[in-house]
Amino acid sequence: MDKLPGFRPLSLFPIFFFLLLTTCQSLQPRNSTLLSIPKAQILLSGITKGKVTVVKTFNGPSGLTGILIKENSTHLAIVYATADAKTLIAGTLFDKNGINLTKQSADAFLKEETNSAPKKTQFQEDEADQIKVSPFKMDLLEKETSFLSQGQGSKVLWIFFDPNCIWCHRLFLMIHQHPIPETIEIRWIPVGFLKSGSIGKASAILKNGFAELSKDEINFDTENEEGGAPIISSPKFRSMVQKNNRILKLLGNGGLETPTLIYRKKGINYLFPGFPDKGEWAGIIGALSP
Fold first, then answer.
1. Has residue 35 got a pLDDT over 90?
2. Could you give phi then psi for residue 89, rounded to 5 degrees?
């Protein structure tokens, strides 16, 4: 596999698969076969035990999905997956003319990284303009909510979400486009109020854990704004979701809005209602404190 600036061969796979391509298809969009970032992340996490993060997916040759991944938060590599998300190919791909397609893709990403650095909006730095969460409400949040934990860091970010909330879906995708710092723990709090099936889907997510949340987002129907989690009828988990609803309403001073983020900065807890843009998200993550 060619070594490129910023790239290195993927070291986590003991066995490399080499694919002989007999045809070379142009890199045109093939939305029917392109794997989403969350779906690719599930495949990679299962194989590498969570040691790599999917940065981006792109249309590869012959119906494959190319996956740009990051190892140890620093090293980049490219692998490929089949359309059914069941087979991963690690190695250098060549077309029938001997062109190194893996190097071609890597060069394109390096150029993109150099020429189009992401623009960030100014995050609100004035604490007076931000919504503070009282110690009483924070204590209620920490002790009474039912949530799913992602990560084990000392800096905690709370996110209220409805399984049928399209902005929550977009937030989930945005978060998982880049590695979550090891110092951070995200606590996903399911609520259910947007649609009649929301509470049943939130119950399923609480019952089955983060894997169910991932499935809800991977199978999200953006046209109809419907999450992909199943609807279950469980008095136990329905009660837990309803309590989460009440706590969100209390935090929002009587209103319900998803997503809603709660974070701690310089010893003070703040509430961010709605969907943060990339700059605001970077500001929240950068400001988090234990």
1. no
2. -115, 120
Q: Is there a single domain that holds both residue 167 and residue 233?
A: yes
The amino acid that residue 123 corresponds to is: F
Position 50 pLDDT exceeds 70:
no
Question: Averaged over 274-286, what is the pLDDT?
Answer: 89
With left for phi above 0 and alpha for psi between -120 and 50, is residue 132 left, alpha or beta?
beta
Sheet strands side by side (includes 131-132) = 131-132, 268-273, 260-265, 155-161, 184-190, 148-150
Rg, Å, the chain Cα set = 21
DSSP for 95-112? Answer: -TT--BHHHHHHHHHHHH
Q: Which of 117, 136, 163 is the last residue of a domain?
A: 117
CB 80 within 8 A of CB 88: yes
61: tokens are 């040759």
Looking at the structure, tell me whether residues 132 and 110 fall in a common domain: no
Q: Answer left, alpha or beta for residue 91, where phi above 0 means left and psi between -120 and 50 means alpha.
A: left
